[in-house]
Structures are given as structure tokens and as C-alpha cells.
Amino acid sequence: MREVFENVSRIKFEGRGSKNPLAFKYYDPSEVVGQKTMADHLRFSVAYWHTFTGKGVDPFGSATMIRPWDVSSDPVEQAKARMVAAFEFMSKLGVPYFCFHDRDIAPEGATLRESNRNLDEIVSLAKQLMQDTGIKLLWGTANLFSHPRFVHGASTSSNADVFAYAGAQVKKALEVTKELGGENYVFWGGREGYETLLNTDMGFELDNLARFLTMAVDYAKEIGFTGQFLIEPKPKEPTKHQYDFDVATVLGFLKKYNLDSYFKMNIEANHATLAGHTFQHELHLARVNGALGSVDANQGDMLLGWDTDQMPTDIYTTTLAMYEILKNGGLHSGGLNFDAKLRRGSFALDDLFYGHIAGMDAFAYGLKVAHKLLETKELEDFIATRYGSYQTGIGSQILKGTVGLKELEKYALEHDQIVNVSGNQELLEAILNQYMMGEK
Length: 440
Description:
By secondary structure, the chain is an alpha/beta fold. The protein has 16 helices and 14 strands. The strands form four sheets. Strands 5-6-7-8-10-12-13-14 form an eight-stranded parallel beta barrel, surrounded by four helices.
């Protein structure tokens, strides 16, 4: 089959002085940072939905991205052409992983049986292309939000038939993910939430969501799927309130239903923004709770209030993200998946490469700065000193649990002239800037 990206060769590392837009300036997959190569640290992945099925549609305009793999009138043949083009793109970009929803790679049929047959046909092709290229599946998932049947949710729907259909779809998606060697499986509750409490039994819906996830855990054990289960928090859009609002909300939910030992978080930068948090905050909170699993790498626009899913090019954000990931000991079976789409006006085929190269370079730069920060321990030492009062005296007794309120009162009566020290936020921001600019 003729190449789709015939004017593009394998993307190579040429260094920061390169003027070639189709070359990496900072991402050198073989460069060792600490104890691992950049490729092993970053574990980049391409998101099938935005990159290969996205057409540049927005609420006010039709498609601007007319792709050469979308020419067949037969949906299954079109899906095959798209899959071949996807593996050509990923091979030339040099990413080791990809991610998909079931309905991204294979068209929905008139019945569930037909949908499953379509999926099986495309999975067979994907398996062959994976063997040919060495590209692996980071995670799979089921699309339980696009079809009108999910208008009131999937596992949280008021209609038991929808719950059953969603369960059947997840069963198939789990089987496919296992068949393709997927290292994780993601749950994103796109419509698991509510628009108004006037027609919603929230407690019932949350119980059903827990029942659904428990069924998935049980079936994974039954079929021998050993990948990591991930939940992706998102606060709003499409529903006014979603049950997976942010990391803290999901942690509380998992602990309530005794599911916390089975699930970690797939954290998306733009979702953190929508929740009123920084990307670093969500990564940090997941990390300190032992729940940081994988990342959907993108960024939002601070002037817009919706999920713009832009390519991640802000190196301050990528640096602080990699700071948390390195402190987590890496992403383990997770990775950095570019859940990011080109702007509607960036409709040329080469723009797909430009966007991913920019994102990969931004995270590579962030990795190197974050590693240096942790190596020198400049921020870590400051924090340790700031909390130094807990290492001796009354602070040490507080941590050991040897004092109660009566002992604290006695101490405070004798030490009520308290002197605080500055948090030095501006100094620390200046230090971070020095590292960012390569002055340290």
C-alpha cells in the first residue's frame, strides 16, 4: 500500500540548534537521564481518537481535516486504511505506544454482534501491524458516551438495559485489550454524572458505578488480564457534574467501595484545569496516595472554559509534571499519552508531526530540568528545613503520637510567643526559573 506520509522520513534527534521542523530538538530517545533512557522515562503514546479520527469539527464549524485514509464508502475498509496510516505515522514518529477506544478503531454496527464482528476484524489487522512495527498498546477502553443510548449515562444510567449494554461493551473491550497485550485499561465516565438533582438519585447511581467497576475487576481476573485499571478524573463537560470530578473525589469513591487496591489514576492536564487545579496538583495528590498510574498529556487554554485538548508545549508545566513523575519512581506500566488535537486551522498532514514533536520535546526538556532539580535537592532541602520543627521537641512527639490535646495545651502555655519563618515563594520561583533557563 502506498505511504500516506510519503514526504516524511523517520523523525530523528538533531539537537537544539536544528532548524528542521521535522526533527527533535530535545527528545533523544537513547539519552540516559539518571538510570534510564528518555524513551523509558517518557513512554510516549499516540491517542488514536484525536490523531486519526479527529476532523477539526467544533460547535460552530464543520470538518477542516480531510484525511486520505477516509475515502472508502465502506466503514470497515475505511477503518482498515486508517489503521495502516496510523502505524505508518507512529513508526515514523518513533513512539512505542498507542491508545484507543473500541469505537475509534472499528465502526459501530447496527447491532452489538455486528459491532463486535467489526472490532474483531480490525483487531486482527492491528495485531499484525503491532508485530510488524513493535509498537505496543498502552491502554484500551470502551466508548460509553458518544451513542445516544448513553444520553443518561452508562453504568449510572436510569435504564437497566443501558447498564447491561455498557457491561457487554466493556467485556469485549477488556478481551480485546488483553488480546493486544495492553498494559492498562482505562475507565473515563464521559456521561457518568448528572445535569440536575431534580431527576437524579445520586446515591443509587454511585452504588451502580461501584457495582459496574467491581464486575470489571472480577472479569479481568476471570480472563487473566493483569494490566493496571485506571480511572481518568474529569469535572464537567459533557455533564454539569461528573462523578469522577478530580483525584480527591475519585480517591474517596474508591475507598468507600473498597476498590482502591485495584485502580490508579490516568490524569489529564486539561481536566485538572477544568477542576480548578494545576496539573502538578493532581499528579502530586495521586502520587502521595500511591495512585499515580498514567498521564494524558495535553494542555488547556486559560482564557477558555472548556476542554481544548491542545498539544502540551508549556515547558513549566511539563517540568513540574516530570518532577512529580520522577518522585513517583516513574509511570511504571503507564505512559505519556498525547490526548491532544491539532487546532482546527492546523489541517495539513505534516501538522500531525509538528504537534507531536513539539509535545515530545517539551516533556524531554521538562524531564532533564526535573531530574537536575531532584539531583541537587535544592527544593527538597528547602521543604525539609521548613518542616524541621517536627524533627525534635514537641514536633517529634506529635509525629510519634505520644501527646494529646492536654499535653499540647501545657506546651503552648509555656511557648506562646511563636515566631514563623517566611515561605520564600518568590525565591523558589526564581530558583526554578534559573533551572529552566539552564543557569543551574
